[in-house]
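Hello support,

Our group uses your service weekly, and this is the first time we've seen a run hang past the timeout. The protein is Lipoprotein. I'm not sure whether the cause is the sequence or the server load. Input pasted verbatim:
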Amino acid sequence: MALTGRAALLAALGSIPVGILEPGWTGILAVNGPLALACACDYALAAPVRRLLLTRSGDTTARLGDTADVTLTVTNPTRRPLRAQLRDAWPPSAWQPGTETEASRHRLTVPPGERRRVPTTLRPTRRGDRQADRVTIRSYGPLGLFTRQGTHKVPWTVRVLPPFTSRKHLPSKLARLRELDGRTSALTRGEGTEFDSLREYVPGDDTRSIDWRATARQTSVAVRTWRPERDRHILLVLDTGRTSAGRVGDAPRLDASMDAALLLAALASRAGDRVALLAYDRRVRALVQGRTAGDVLPSLVNAMATLEPELVETDARGLTSTALRTAPRRSLIVLLTTLDAAPVEQGLLPVLPQLTQRHTVLVASVADPHIARMAQARGNTEAVYEAAAAARSQEERRRIAEQLRRHGVTVVDATPEELAPALADAYLALKAAGRL
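Update from on-call engineer: The timeout came from a worker crash unrelated to the input. Re-ran successfully.
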């Protein structure tokens, strides 16, 4: 129970003393009869808050950057009309900065025995689960002199999914995939692909592709044509250790890695390949496997939604052994991690042969575009020192990438905007070369 500003003004004008009305709260006790009666009636006619029934409905998922609409239904089972102010509290990250006060507060009137819907539009600023906190209702009497106030817990969760901004590249990558698959262009040839048909030999063809039995049955030399194999296994491995927490632009490296992984998963599933996901630092943070082509992308997006970088050093041996258990047959293992010297030389390189002897390995890393801008800086002493430091950093990454390539690893090192299409291109190049 609370005193409104209107009642306080009347109390001040009437010189009404302050007193204790009930144990545990203070109010103003009117000494003049008319005002005391008005306040008592106002309090008595205000709808009780605790007897209200509240339920929620609406969106349970939303992509980062989009809105989510959640409806709160307020039912008034009492005999008094509800005149109220309502605050629907959510975490700060559920709103755009500066909009929480306006978006979370509502005025409503609910006649006795009826209900009203209160819409709330969320615009989350972070991935993960955003859970409703509580609903606070302040019920006014008809004169607006006294209010009843109470809170209700009305649980609801909105899962904020990765934005998948790289999906704009998917149509062009699918067009290239169709070329490789023989639907819009000539079929490819290479080791590890599926036999498709025979055609006449052309100078320059690999002599190992000649089909001697077919040649013996006709007057010209016949060669076998191939198409990329379907139903290959691809394991996407997200390194969620401390290096993934480094921010590049407005987001951590992990977000750019997830975006690239989603584009590759969408492309590979359309190619007929089986895609699995492993997120690991010192333990498994997420694992998705055994999904059908139509279900794999929603499953990956849902699993990635709650992933956050962990400020621990990644256990390369544990990651390797877990990846080998997850991919029991020959697969393409795509490791999205750092190219920093210490984690690679001390962690990844010693265990890399365990992966490369059984699988095709591709390492993708997020490069900082600020380093490239620093390398171009000139004009004063400070800029020259920055350029020298940037050049040294770039040379170090090139050295690490070359060490990985000597172990038979394909390396993709690109900025956040370029990583997803570059990774998709590397996957298509491996298919074209018959390495998948």
